[in-house]
Amino acid sequence: MAPQSTQTMDKKREFALSHEEFKKLTGLVHSLTGIVLGDHKKDMVYSRLARRLRQLGLQSFSQYCALLDSKKAAQETGFLVNAITTNLTKLYRESHHFDSMAEYLTDISRDKIRNSGDKSLLIWSAGCSSGEEPYSIASTILSKVPSLGQWNLRILATDLDTNMLDTGRAGIYPKSALDGIPEAYQPVIKEHITLKDNKIHVKDRAKSLVHFKQLNLLHDWPMKRKFDVIFCRNVLIYFDNPTKDNLVRRYADQLLPNGMLFLGHSESLLNKPDDLQLIGRTSYVKRSA
Description:
- By secondary structure, the chain is of the alpha/beta class.
- The chain has two domains: about 5-85, Chemotaxis receptor methyltransferase CheR, N-terminal domain (Chemotaxis Receptor Methyltransferase Cher, domain 1), CATH 1.10.155; about 95-285, Rossmann fold (3-Layer(aba) Sandwich).
- A hairpin with a 2-residue loop joins strand 9 and strand 10.
- It contains twelve helices and ten strands.
């Protein structure tokens, strides 16, 4: 039996989404965020924006595209980006990265030069989504690198999606967020997370280390200081190759010498900057000059 055409499938949906409307919407998303959405993402775009059409009381994607062409476009583009942005994350995802980070930070805590300075340490979770990653970073450091307890530690957590940032600031997640936690991190969970009303709550000590800010990675970065560690995991897969190369170059420039960069498990670098050295699974260190 031959597969149904896209047009036939669209007719059975609540809203019709023409090819031209899809291209207009994905083109706008690309211009705003750099995210590339091919034709295979049409179902995803439909399902996420159909909810937005219902919220607005619109009857068609044609009306939604007209809204994006109107004087109210500036206000609506933020909702468009929030609806499209993919937010898939979990506590201690790819836990080997947190193991490597803990080893690296332990070495820093023992470094005589760093200890004789201001004892400050800066980490960036770029594309932090709903906050599970930066809280995993914070709780790992508190539990596994207690020697940094007297240091000035700051974790910057940035994302484009303001809804996800609000979730991160609250630090409250469904109990299912604990599913699949590696055994080695069970003691960390017990120390820094509490269960209340069938939801998990990040405790204040870990929350105090994380600072959430909205940031479009393709725009200028306001940070003045360089970082010891940067996490940018499962973010690059949504950009085209030139954008990926440019972002990784900027990350390398934003790292201190010997600083670490962690990417997602499927994000290998074809055009790796010369000063980044692969030292583990999608784990890189910036070599000293």
